[in-house]
Amino acid sequence: MLHGKPLSHLILILFTTMISANIVGEMLRFILIAIVGPDTIVELALLRYVEYSIGPHMFNLIILSFSFDLSLKFNLITMLGLFVGWYYFRHSY
Predict the structure, then answer these.
(1) Are 50 and 74 in contact, with CB atoms under 8 Å apart?
(2) For the segment 62-91, what is each residue's pLDDT rounded down to a tens digit?
(3) Could you tell me if 20 and 80 are in contact, meaning their C-beta atoms sit under 8 angstroms apart?
(4) Cα→Cα distances 49→6, 29, 54, 62, 79, Å
């Protein structure tokens, strides 16, 4: 499956393309809302997302305290980004 390529490269490529696709999807959402208006068929089909959230986790270090929350929004554009990342990994270098 990996053909001698490190697993860390696959994880990094998939994470990067997923985040990039999320950014593109949100920009596309803003453009569609500005041009056409909210709740269009294209927005509902392409940009409706499922949110996955981890947290919030609190780290108390007596002097400082940190709060950590991770939330990912998966939609069709994100899945397209994952496919592009997988294709890039398979057919590059």
Answers:
(1) yes
(2) 899 989 888 888 889 999 999 999 999 999
(3) no
(4) 31, 11, 16, 38, 11
